[in-house]
Structure formats: C-alpha cells, structure tokens
Design goal:
Strand content: 5-15%
Low-confidence stretches: 1-36
Number of helices: 12
Shape: globular
Helix content: 40-55%
Structural class: alpha/beta
Order of helices and strands: HHHHHHEHEHEHHHHEE
Length: 244
C-alpha cells in the first residue's frame, strides 16, 4: 500500500484556467508568491465534521444561486465559482498516496456526489457508494481500510431526498432478484407508517448502527475515540446536508 502522506496545514489552490476565465486569479484571491510555491502533502483539517459542514454551506449557497440563473452558461459560471477554499494537491503528491480526512458512505444516485456536496478536493474524502447506502460487507471492509490504514477519524452515512432505492423498498412492485437482495436490509428496517424522508433517515441510521455491529475493528476504533460515526440527510432541492 502507498504510504500515507504527511499532514501539514491546509492551503487554498487555484483551479487554473477555469477560474482564470472568471477573473479569479491569485492576485485577487490574496495568494502570495510564497504560498503558491508551497507544496502541501495533505489537506486534513483539525475538525473533519466542521470542515464538512463548512464545505456544504459553501456548496448550498452556490447551488441555490445556480437555481436562480436563467441560462446554462450562467449556471456553469456560478458552479465554477466553487473550490476557492480548497487545498488542491499536485498530481505528483497524489500519485504517492492518499490522506483522506473523512469517509462517506452514500447512495449511488447520480445527483449525490460527496465531493460536490461538501466542496471537497481530490484526496479529501474516501467515498463508498451503493444504491440505498446500506451496510453491505464490501462497504464495511472498505471502511475498515480507511480507518485502519488511512486513519480517517470520521465516517458519515448520508441518505438523501427522493432516494429511489428506499422508494423501491417501500413499494410492492416486483424487482429483479439482485435488486430484491439490495433493498432487503432497507425494507426490514422501515416503518410503513412513515413517509419517504423519514424512511431515508431511518435507513441511514440503521446502516450506521450496523457498522459497529458487523465490524470489530470499527467498534474498537469508536470505543478508543479514534473514530466518530455520524448520520446525515442531503436535500437535493436546496443542497443542504443536516445531521440526523
């Protein structure tokens, strides 16, 4: 396995041509020549959960502004204004290894991209995705790797609005055998009296509980205060992630 890069303080880096086209250069962002020449090895913040919250606040503001734009070009320009607060590592550093500071287990839904939702750069997040964000064995094994080898101190299980997998679990319509197996753990934890949003949150909470029930490694990391597990809900409409 590649050696985990050494952590040093967070820096903001430019996106190059994309931001230059918007007039967002190093001069008007306040970056000094000395800062531009520094090469960080990692972007790990002191408080990963707070960093996720702050990143989502930036994303939600841009996401809502995008919704008010009238043309595709205007929407593209609004979205390109993101990432100004990120630490972008050179590809030479990324090629040596990774040092993510949070692990995200979320849905495979095409509208849910953690790197966008949390305004994160490459190597910030260790992301695991599957329809319905369930605690399947391969997901837990991947989290064991992220916690034990990469030393990520935070796992977030994130459900989202209008989740098709949870909707399928709530429905009686026939599914393929593999899809039935996928939604079965979702279906078993649901309360039929609840609406879709409540069902999504219940499923995410159940997934989080399963992580430490199925994994001794994760359970031990939590008991030793090396790992925190949280649950959240992403509202696609306004772009906001709230803890559950």
């Amino acid at each position: 396995m590649p050696e985990r890069p050494v952590t040093i303080r967070r820096r903001s880096f430019l996106l190059g041509t994309g931001l230059t086209a918007l007039g967002l250069t190093g001069d008007n962002l306040g970056a000094s020549p000395a800062e531009a020449q520094e090469t960080p090895r990692s972007c790990r913040p002191e408080d990963p959960l707070q960093a996720l919250k702050q990143g989502n606040e930036r994303f939600a503001a841009v996401w809502q502004s995008k919704n008010r734009a009238s043309t595709a070009d205007e929407r593209a320009k609004v979205m390109a204004s993101m990432w100004l607060h990120n630490c972008f590592l050179p590809s030479s550093v990324l090629d040596e290894g990774q040092a993510p500071w949070a692990t995200i287990l979320t849905c495979a839904d095409s509208r849910v991209s953690p790197e966008w939702v949390f305004d994160a750069a490459p190597s910030d997040l260790f992301v695991i995705r599957s329809a319905g964000n369930t605690a399947f064995d391969e997901a837990i094994a991947s989290m064991e790797y992220s916690v034990d080898v990469l030393e990520t101190p935070l796992i977030m299980v994130m459900g989202h609005s209008s989740c098709g997998a949870v909707g399928a679990a709530r429905s009686n319509r026939p599914l393929s055998p593999l899809l039935e197996r996928l939604v079965d753990p979702i279906r078993r934890c649901l309360n039929p009296e609840e609406d879709l949003e409540a069902s999504v949150k219940r499923n995410a909470l159940n997934t989080a509980q399963q992580l430490t029930r199925k994994s001794e490694l994760l359970r031990k990391a939590v008991s030793e205060n090396k790992l925190r597990i949280v649950v959240s809900y992403f509202n696609i409409g306004d772009g906001i992630v709230n803890l559950v």
